Amino acid sequence: MLEARLQTGALLKKVLEAIKELITDANFDCSDNGIALQAMDNSHVALVALLLRHDGFEPYRCDRSLALGVNLVSLSKVLRCAGNDDIITLKADDTADVLSLTFENTDNDRISEYELKLMDIDSEHLGIPDTTYEAVVQMSSAEFARICKDLQVLSDSVQIDVTKEGVKFGAKGELGSGAVTLKQNGNVDKEEEATLIELQQNVSLNFSLKYLVNFTKATPLASRVSLSMSSEVPLLVEYKMEAGYIRYYLAPKIGE
Amino acid sequence: QQTQTTLDSFFDST
Predict the structure, then answer these.
(1) What pLDDT, in 10s, does the model give residues A206-216?
(2) Which residues is A115 bridged to in the sheet?
(3) Nearest CB to A124: which of B2, B3, B13?
(4) Which of A98, A124, A138, B10 minimizes the number of CB atoms within 10 Å of its CB?
(5) Tens digit of each residue's pLDDT (9 = 90 or more) over A106-146
(6) Who among B5, B12, B14 is closest to A251 (CB)?
(7) Alpha-carbon A19 to chain mean position
(8) What does each C-alpha distance from A143 to A8, A85, A218 come to in angstroms?
């Protein structure tokens, strides 16, 4: 059985907000390592890989690996019944036809209990090859969200160019064009806002802004985001949390 | 015109 108690329930609410528009149903794979999820969107253009490590829960117990098939919209509706400061406990039996959720307020005088019906999901697991990326950009997650939103006004795609000087996000559309360049500035006072670039080789890649904007729903989970790129391979957008991560992979756009 | 690729060609089904 699974029993996982999350002191900061708001984290789970934020995680659901970050994935529920990209994918509708997914298996939460529970093991002694923690709770993981991997799913592609319907069009197979983007993939979400989530890990909530066991040490983020107190206590965490999972005797046998379990796959909990969840409709994410339903789960996020139930999670809306939890207060932001509530402690959330997830429980499931080995037969796993329901997921039990308990929300306790911080005064411990209000306890709400919900059960969510689970479903059988035939999901194919994808082997994500270990990749050494040609360019890795680390930047403020809020800045990345702003750039994606701003450029979406102009186009449905963005060209990302990374050189050792900086990273340039450019968009061209019917009404005109726009570009935002962030210079590498590792020694700024505010570490959280620094743009850092590790570069083996300059890259220039095109991606759909609709998906990137969707990924930025993870912004409340981390102040930093990393963009890992190599020519003609999927972009990896990673938000690291205290005990885990949410990674998004996005297939590039190619051709003229 | 740019074409949107999919992930299928990059990641192996296991």
Answers:
(1) 999 999 999 99
(2) A100
(3) B13
(4) A124
(5) 999 999 999 999 999 987 788 888 899 999 999 999 999 99
(6) B5
(7) 6
(8) 25, 27, 13
Exposed / middle / buried, residue A34 (Cβ in 10 Å: 0-12, 13-18, 19+): buried
A225 with A215: CB under 8 angstroms? no
Nearest to A48 by CA among A72, A32, A31: A72
3-class SS of residue A249: strand
Strands A157-162 and A166-173: antiparallel
8 Å CB contact of A251 and B12? no
Picking from A256, A40, A252, the residue whose alpha carbon sits closest to that of residue A134 is A252
Q: In angstroms, rounded to a whole number, what is the distance separating the alpha carbons of residues A157 and A175?
A: 14
Interface contact flag, A253 B3, Cβ < 8 Å = yes
Separation of alpha carbons A84 and A89, rounded Å: 14
- Mean pLDDT throughout A43-55? 96
3-state SS class at A127: strand
ipTM for the whole complex: 0.92
Contact B10 A125 (CB under 8 A): no
The 3-state DSSP class for residue A251 equals coil
Q: State CA A99 to chain mean position distance.
A: 22
Copy the structure tokens of residue A83. Answer: 């207060």
Per-residue buried b or exposed e for A206-226, using 16+ beta carbons within 10 Å of the residue's own CB: bbbbebbbbbbbbbbbbebbb
Provide the angle, in degrees to the nearest 10, between the axes of the packed helices A72-79 and A10-19.
Answer: 150
**Tell me, what DSSP letter sits at residue A219?**
G
> What's the pLDDT score for residue A169?
98
Q: Is the peptide bond before A59 cis (omega within 30 degrees of 0)?
A: yes
Read off the pLDDT of each residue in A156-176 and give the average, rounded to a whole number.
96
